[in-house]
Specification:
Blueprint: H1 15-36, H2 40-93, H3 100-106, E1 125-129, E2 132-136, E3 144-151, E4 156-162, E5 166-168, E6 180-190, E7 193-195, E8 202-206
Antiparallel strand pairs: 1-2, 2-5, 3-4, 3-6, 6-7, 6-8
Helix pairs in contact: 1-2
């Protein structure tokens, strides 16, 4: 059986693996220091820097956890709050003293945005979701988009009509054993017809499996 080798640096790339190796090092280095004749000043500096790094990582992770919890709480509060605000607007509109100027002053008036459909185009974003490319766009006020996927600069191409504001591309790879570049562009569709301009492209690389 054919074999090959790969160099693996002892400095771990993942934070959790690196910190685990730090703890192992710290628990054993004092026993090896005299045997290896290590400079005590350098070793003291290293230990201090290792501790500072771990403390910084712990603080960062705690802040991230706090931010995630705060974001979740904001989302939980937003829906009932929006409902309350809309209810307050309806109550205000029942008053004979309610005018458009009052609603304008309170920031409660609905507005209209004029869109030039001849020059408008979808703004696409893309990310990997469980290993599958997900393309998102702002749908309103259109019905859908006509999405084109170009694989490996023209090696293959396909199109999909997307009626939701996202598309999970589950199509099979050309060759799962090699990396694959998928590039997406789209047009808006309104009342069954393509309108506006082609979007700017977004691309993603699917690594070999």
């Amino acid at each position: 059986m054919a074999q090959t080798t790969e160099f693996v640096d002892f400095i771990a790339k993942k934070e959790e693996d690196f910190i685990s190796k730090i703890h192992n090092f710290e628990s054993k280095i004092d026993g090896y220091a005299p045997i290896l004749a290590l400079d005590e000043t350098k070793l003291t500096s290293l230990k201090a820097n290792l501790t500072a790094y771990i403390n910084a990582c712990n603080k960062k992770n705690a802040l991230h956890a706090e931010a995630r919890a705060a974001t979740k709480r904001c989302k939980e509060l937003l829906k009932p709050l929006t409902s309350e605000i809309r209810g307050t607007k309806k109550d205000a509109e029942l008053s004979p003293n309610c005018t458009l100027a009052v609603l304008e002053d309170l920031g409660m008036n609905n507005t209209k945005r004029i869109i030039d459909m001849d020059t408008d185009y979808p703004v696409l974003s893309i990310k990997l979701l469980a290993g599958i490319p997900q393309v998102k766009y702002k749908k309103t006020p259109y019905d859908s988009i006509r999405l084109t996927c170009n694989i490996n600069k023209g090696e293959n191409q396909y199109q999909e009509t997307v009626t939701q504001n996202y598309y999970n591309d589950t199509s099979a790879r050309l060759n799962p054993q090699v990396p694959e570049v998928r590039e997406y562009t789209a047009y808006f569709i309104k009342k069954g017809k393509i309108v506006g301009q082609r979007s700017k492209s977004v691309k993603i690389i699917l690594e070999a499996i």
